[in-house]
Amino acid sequence: MAPTPHTILGAKHLLCPLCPPCETPNAADRLRPSTDQRSLVCAQNHTFDIAKQGYVNLLPVQQKKSLTPGDNKEMVLARKKFLGLGYYKPLVNTLVESCTHHLSTRQTETAPVILDAGCGEGYYTDKLHNALVIQHPDLTTYGFDIAKPAVIEAAKRNKLLSCFVSTIKAVPVATQSCDLIISVFSPMQPSQFQRLLKPSGNLMVLCAGKNHLHQLKSLLYDNTSDYDEDKFLAQMDSHFTLSKRIPIQQTMEMKSNHDILSLLAMTPHFWRTSPEAKKQLDCIQQLAVDIDVQLLQFTPKPPIAQDANNSGT
Ligand SMILES: C[S@@+](CC[C@H](N)C(=O)[O-])C[C@H]1O[C@@H](n2cnc3c(N)ncnc32)[C@H](O)[C@@H]1O
Ligand SMILES: [Zn+2]
């Protein structure tokens, strides 16, 4: 029996990360499946193999700032372990609800495309795809992350996701091809996201509010105020308009030391705090920890003419 062709072979919006972007984008500039269906290939014959886990590495060496960019394997597995405990379900539910609403109010019949920028190990990407594909069986879901260990986990999690190693600073995806871009606790690249979105598309950002995990932080630090929403919104302003803000505020009742340490291990605080501060958590068996997250929904501003030349930056 012939093997089932991998989902990634059906991805229609991918560009070659090695070729200069076409002045007048058209279907001929896209990556296509190779004859043996084991790789993606461009018109200049640049070839990108499909790894056995089902992802493709589209990060050229010259875009790598280190040998292993992004989160390392330990961070990725820590995040996977904590997210698997289900405490962040309210975040998923809010994201799914907003994305479902956006897709159901589209004025077009074209197959919807969503892209998770900085998808990590694919927890949100997977949940979102599974929820949206019921209404939209022709949905394409892309997951992009610069960390190879993260992309491996995302690809293993759900064979119906199209997962790629790539930087979000130069996403090799055609201009105006996405209905939704998702960014969950990941770095922002407003000019790229504006380029990738259809004019009617939306950007959904999940970001931490000032009280997020404050009980955990106050056990670790003397001063916990590191949040500057104005600065965040200012960086978005030339490319996006904030159209909706949904606060997600709940308390996680953590009932075991295992869960508390799993939460710590997946946050950047794990790497910032001293062994002495971490040790304090060893004897805590219960902790109420606040989730204070915002879902920010943005609509893209029309690109200004000169941006067309800078779209890869
Ligand atoms: C805090 S994690 C969030 C992951 C995932 N969205 C989640 O919430 O589970 C941030 C992610 O951004 C990725 N990242 C950092 N810089 C990046 C870049 N320039 N391009 C793509 N991904 C990047 C990291 O590798 C990491 O997986
Ligand atoms: Zn090429």
Describe this structure in words.
The protein is of the alpha/beta class and 313 residues long. The protein has one domain (68-303): 3-Layer(aba) Sandwich (Rossmann fold), CATH 3.40.50.150. Helix content is 29%, strand content 23%. The chain has 10 helices and 11 strands. The strands form 2 sheets. The protein has an 8-stranded mixed beta sheet, with helices on both faces. It has a 3-stranded antiparallel beta sheet with strand order 1-2-3, with no helix packed on it. The model has no long low-confidence stretch (mean pLDDT 91). The site of zinc ion has 6 residues, from loops.
Structure characteristics:
binds zinc ion; binds S-adenosylmethionine; Rossmann fold; 313 residues; 11 strands; three-stranded antiparallel beta sheet; globular
Q: What Rg, in angstroms, do the CA atoms define?
A: 20 Å
Average pLDDT rating: 91
Helix content: 25-40%
- Just give the CATH class: Alpha Beta
Low-confidence region ranges: none
